[in-house]
Amino acid sequence: MKRIVSGWMVLLVLAMGVASCGSDKAAATAAIGSAESAWAAVHERIANVMPAESKALDEAIAGAKATLESGDAKAALAAAQALPGRISELSAGLAAKETELRAGWDGLAAALPGVVDMAQQRVDALAKSRRLPAGLDAATVDGAKSKLEQAKGLWTEAVTAQQSGKLAEAVAKAIDVRGLMRDVLSALKLPVPVALAA
Length: 198
Known about the structure:
Number of domains: 2
Shape: elongated
Order of helices and strands: HHHHHH
Number of helices: 6
Number of strands: 0
Helix content: over 70%
Largest sheet: none
């Protein structure tokens, strides 16, 4: 009789374990699905403004799904349950970050095109000159011309990114243009505007 009871107890424990695993898997699947839905609603805006944070959240969701597929439902559930808080945190900071990036873009967009034009005029004038001014040599001018072309290409990319709503990318590229133009102006013996000094 004791053996029969013991056998039933083992079966009961095993059944409870299977039920628990099934429950964890269902809960993890539901939690991941809920997080994916919440993330889909804000993903594009956050990716445009906070791309690094957006990538980290994408990886966290993928990680939870991979953990579930590997059979560790409890760990997957724990990972999935942490996702809504992270999504809410990113969403809460979105407006402030957008404002910050727009302000940065507006300042750079106001300054850079004029600076690029000024440098281009200087390069064109030097190309027509029979003799370079004191302090300038052909190698320096050629280097400045190369950086100027690089800056012009990057500025075009920055404008395209901004028009597509990709503010973080646009500002990052514009900052690179600013650095290049500082080098160009210095090489060509032109004054560096205050707007480019930051």
